[in-house]
Amino acid sequence: MKNKAKKKTFLWVDILLYASAFFISVTGMLFILKSRGFYPFKDNTLFIMDMQSQFMEFLASLRYTINGDNSIFYSWSRSLGGNYLGLYAYYLASPLSWITIFFPVDKFYAAILVLTLLKIGCCGLTFSLFASYLWNRCHPVPDTDHCWQKLILLPMAVSYALISYNMAYSFCLMWIDGVILLPLILLGLEKLLNGQKGLLYTLALTTSFICNYFTGYIVGIFTAIYLLFRLCTLVTRQTLSFYLRRVLRFAATTLLAIGLASPLLFAVLKDLASGRLTAVTYRADTITNFPFVQLLAQFTNGSYINPLYEAFPNIYCGYTALVLALLFFTLRRVSLREKLAAAGVILLLLLSFYLTRLNYFWQAFMEFTGFSHRYAFVFSFFVLYLASRTLSALPFNSFIAKWSNKPVLQLIALLLMGVVSVDMGLNGRAIILGLENDYDYDTLTFYQDNLAVIKPLTDDILSNDNGFYRVNQDFEYANNDAMLLGFNGMAHYSSTFNQTVNSLTSRLGFAQAHYWNSGHGSTPLTDSLLGVKYHLFNTPTPSFYTKIKATEYGTSSCLNENALSIVYSAPLPDRKINLDNDNPFLNQNILLNSIAGTDLEYFTFPDFEFTGNESAWSYSFTAGSDWPVYLYMQSPDFSSTKVLVNGTEAGSYFTHETNCILYLGSFTPGEKVLIDILPATSVRVEYAQIAVLNTVLLENTLLNLRTNEMRITDHKGAKLKGTIYVPEGQKIVTSIPYDIGWTVKIDGKKVPFQKYAETFIAIETEAGEHDISFTYLSPGFSTGMIVFLITLILSVLYFQPDIFRILLVKGRKNDSDIM
C-alpha cells in the first residue's frame, strides 16, 4: 500500500508539473497579446507578414481538400493548379493544423489564435517532460516528502515556451513544431542511451520530419550533436562497447524515422525540384555574418531582431536561465568532462551564428530570403537544458532538511516563477511590438472589411456555377485568396512554387516577383486561354466581359463568355513556342497563334509619342478603334507611380503588384489619348509599349477552339473526367501545368503526354470522340509509400515486444521500461 501511495504522489506531482507548464505558458502568451491589444481582448489579429500572405490561407485551404475540386495531392487554387502535398509538407503537416477546419473563414483570426496558443502551450509541456526526466536522473531514489521540489523546474518550461524565437516566428507556426518536438526527441534519445530500444525517439523524430521537413533536418542535426555531448559525458573504457551498441541503435532508429516519414519527404523533394531548388544557389560571399561582440546584445531582454532582414539570431530565453546555465559550470556535482562538452556545444552553436559556412550548413546549404537563423531555438533549448540540469543537481534535500518546518522552497519556487513570468512577458511584448512597428498586424476590422469586398463575389460564383473553371482577380486581400476562399485561382505565393508557371506568366505580362505570381496584368486573351470564366475587378472593366454582381465597395464579378475549357482540341503545330520577347503582347500573339494554327495580329501597336524624363513623362496617341488599349513598361527600379489617362487615374505601376500589363480603357475612334506617368522617385524605363486588342479576331479564334472543348462530367478530388472530340490533325491541349504526377487515360488506356510552351500538358491521340480522364498523385508519394511500408514492417519487428506491451499491458512499472 505504501508503494502505491508513493506512486500516486509522484504521479500527481508530474501531472501538476506538466499541466502547469502548458497552462501557464498559454496564459503568459495571452497576457503578452493582451498588452498589445490583440483579439479576443481588442482589435488586433495575428495576421502579419507570412501569416497574412501565406500560412493563414494555406490553413484555410485544408477544408477544401475534403470535398470539391481539390485533394491532399493537388490544388487548383494555387497558380493554375499544382502539387498540394509538397505545400502541405512544408506548411501544414502538423496534426494541430486540422483544428482550424472547425472555424469559419470569417472567424479565422480565432482559429489562428487557438493554434498559436496550443503550440506555445505544447512547447512548455514537452520541455517539462524532458526536464522531469533530468530531475529523475539526478534523483534516482525519490522521497515522497521532497518530491514536490521538482516543481522548481516549472519556470524553465515556461521560459522555453516563451523564448524569443517563438515570439519572433509566431507568424511562421510551422517552425514551432520543431520547438515542440525537440525535447521529446532528446527524451527518447536519453532513454535509448539508458538501454531502451528507442521507440519514443523514433516516433518523435518521425513526427518532426512529418510536421516540417526543414525543422526536422535542424532537429536531426542537433540531436546528433546532443548525442556526442552525452557520449563525452558517459563513455568510459568499461562502457565503450555498451555505448557503441547504443550509437548503432541510434543510427538504425534514425533511419527508421526517415523511412516512416518518407511519403511526405519524397513528395516534398520532388516538389522542390520543380520550383525552389531550381532557383537556389549556394554562396558564401563573406566569412562572418556580423561582428561577434554584437551577438552579446541578443542575451538581453527585449532585444528585438527583425526576423526577415537582420543577421542576428533570436536566442533570448530569460535572465534566470542564463544565470543558472552559468552556474552549471561551477557545480561540484557536475563532472569536468560534462562541463567541457557543454561548453563545446555552446561554442559550436555561437560559431554557427557567426560563421557564414556553418550557418549555411544548418540551412541545408540553401539560400533563403531572410530568416537567416531558423535553427536558433536549439541554442535556447540548450541553455535551458543547462539551467534545468543545474536545478536538478542542486542539493535540495539537505536544504529542505535544514528548513523542514518552513515553506522556504515554496517561496523560492513562487518567486522564481514570478521573475521568469515578468522577464519573458516583457521580452515577448517587446518582440511583438517590434513586429508591429515593422510590419503592422491586420486588425479584425480590416480583415472583415477585406472579406466583405471579395467573399460575396466568390460565394455568388461558386453557389451559382458548379462547373470547372478558373477565377481571376485584379485586387486581393492577400497573395493566396483562392486558397482562403476556395476557388480555382491564378495567384500563388509560397516556397513551393512552380518555376515554369512563374516564368511563363511573367513573359505574358503578369505581375511576378520573388516566389509570387498573380493574375494582375491579364488580358481577355490570357483569361480566355487559361480557362478564366470569371474575373473580379475593382477597376474599369473591358467590354469583353459581362458584369454579373457588384458590391458597395466598388468591386464586381464579371463573366467571360469566351473562356476556353481547361482541356480542348487545337492544331498546336509546334509544342516548342518561343516567348522570349520583351514585349508581352507579342508573346500573347505568338502563344495563341501557335495553339490555334493562325497567323493573326490580335494585339496591334499604334504609333505614340513620348515626352518627359525619369521624374515624369507622357505617352500620347490617337485612338483608331474602340477596342481595349493596354500599356506595358519595363524598369529595373521599383517605385510608387500613378498612371493618368486623360487626367483620370487608371492605376499605378512599378511595384511588385503593378509591374505588369495595365488596362488603360476603350476610346472613341479619332480621340486623342494622353497617358501621364507620375513616379514618386526617378524611374528608368528600359522598354514601353502601348497595344490595342482586336476583340473581333480574338472572339472568332476562341469560338473555333471552343467547338472541340472537353465536356467535363466529373471534377472532384483533383480528378477530371469527360469526353472530347479531336478533329484530324489536332492535339488535345490543356492549360494544366505539366507535372509528371498526372495520369492521363483515353478510352480507359493510359497514354503519354508532352509539354508545350515549356509549361502545359498536350496529348497526341487519334481523331474521333474519346473518353478522357486526368488523375493526379504527387510525384514521389508512391515511392515513399513503398519505403514507408517496408520501414513499418521492420519497425514492428524491431519494436515488437514494446508495441505488444503498450497495446496489451494495462499497468507498467516505469515509463522508461517501454519508451
Describe the structure.
The structure is a single chain. By secondary structure, the protein is of the alpha+beta class. The protein is built from 25 helices and 27 strands. A 5-stranded antiparallel beta sheet has the order 12-13-18-15-16, with no helix packed on it. Strands 20-21-27-23-24 form a 5-stranded antiparallel beta sheet, with no helix packed on it. A hairpin with a 2-residue loop joins strand 23 and strand 24. It is elongated and about 95 Å long. The C terminus is likely disordered.
Identify the notable features of this structure and list them briefly.
46% helix, 819 residues, five-stranded antiparallel β-sheet, alpha+beta, 27 strands, single chain, disordered C terminus
Structure in a nutshell:
The protein is α+β, with helices and mostly antiparallel strands and 819 residues long.
Which residues sit in consecutive blocks of at least 5 with pLDDT less than 50?
810-819
From the N-terminal CA to the C-terminal CA, the straight-line distance is: 27 Å
| Strand residue content | 15-25%
Strand line-up of the largest beta sheet: 12-13-18-15-16
Q: Helix/strand-derived class? A: alpha+beta
Helix tally? Answer: 25
Arithmetic mean pLDDT? 91
Number of E-state strands? 27
**Gyration radius, to the nearest Å?**
31 Å
Q: Specify the biggest β-sheet.
A: 5 strands, antiparallel
